Amino acid sequence: MKRIFLFILVFLCLTGCAASSQAVEEHSYTQIDQDTAKEMMAMDGTQIIVDVRTQEEYDSGHIPGAICIPNESIGCDSPEALPDYDQIILIYCRSGNRSKQAAQKLASMGYTNIYEFGGINTWTGEIERKEDIDPMFDGFTDFYYTYDASTNPPFYQRYRFYEEDGEFFFYHETREGGGWPQTEEDITASGTVKLTEEDRKTFFTYLEGGTIKEPEINDETGDAGPWTYIYRGNGQEEYEFPSYGARLAFEEYCEGLSSMRIKVTDNRMGAGTGV
Question: What dotted CATH number matches 25-127?
Answer without folding.
Answer: 3.40.250.10
